[in-house]
Amino acid sequence: xxxxxxxxxxxxxxxxxxxxxxxxxxxxxxxxxxxxxxxxxxxxxxxxxxxxxxxxxxxxxxxxxxxxxxxxxxxxxxxxxxxxxxxxxxxxxxxxxxxxxxxxxxxxxxxxxxxxxxxxxxxxxxxxxxxxxxxxxxxxxxxxxxxxxxxxxxxxxxxxxxxxxxxxxxxxxxxxxxxxxxxxxxxxxxxxxxxxxxxxxxxxxxxxxxxxxxxxxxxxxxxxxxxxxxxxxxxxxxxxxxxxxxxxxxxxxxxxxxxxxxxxxxxxxxxxxxxxxxxx
Length: 280
Known about the structure:
Elements: E1 8-13, H1 24-32, E2 35-39, H2 43-52, E3 56-58, H3 73-89, E4 93-98, H4 107-118, E5 122-125, H5 131-139, H6 143-146, E6 148-152, H7 153-158, E7 168-172, H8 189-199, E8 208-213, E9 223-228, E10 242-245, H9 255-279
Domain Tetrapyrrole methylase: 8-227
Organism: Undibacterium rivi
Protein name: Tetrapyrrole methylase domain-containing protein
């Protein structure tokens, strides 16, 4: 077994609202590690991190990279991961903090952990309360009732994906749907019309959908606006808006499988009874 180097990396989540959603373990890493590096858009969370961290580094200015010709969000994320690794290579214990869950729509943490482990450093991730957790609670949805499909909006648009209309469909980042430049932070009605046209191969134009935005601080209200699918191109969206599409059809029983399972159950019940008869 290889000896680990002096530096260490832990990626934590601050939850969607931080207050009450920050786990005790994540808090202990933030307060005790040598440096906290964060990509947290919420001002209140940033202020708190700055106040409790021994040293604080903000990554948000890295987004300016997208204004440079030839650079995209991929370059931004790569530089963020490199900034984290730079501190780890200095032998520091580094806590990288991300809002929500550090592993959900946060490729930076996955990149940084993979790089750190490749270089022989100890690195791991601690879970946090994500936008999906908030969505389930705010909308009163149980993914186990009908099943759930979850994918990024632009990925859904450009790949051939099979949608199950009997299950819930969650499309993340609908507010930047269709951006192939990886430089923009908004979408346009024309892009949204393309995704609506694709969705209408499965759902009716009048199918009710939900525009969801989790509250990120105590003074903010959760958004859960219900609109018709065909109205999506004219809807006001943010980068954080999620499109939630409830099931359109009822689930159909697969009778062949049900019969096979019943046959197995019947045989298991019948076998002990047969043994009892033979032993009499």
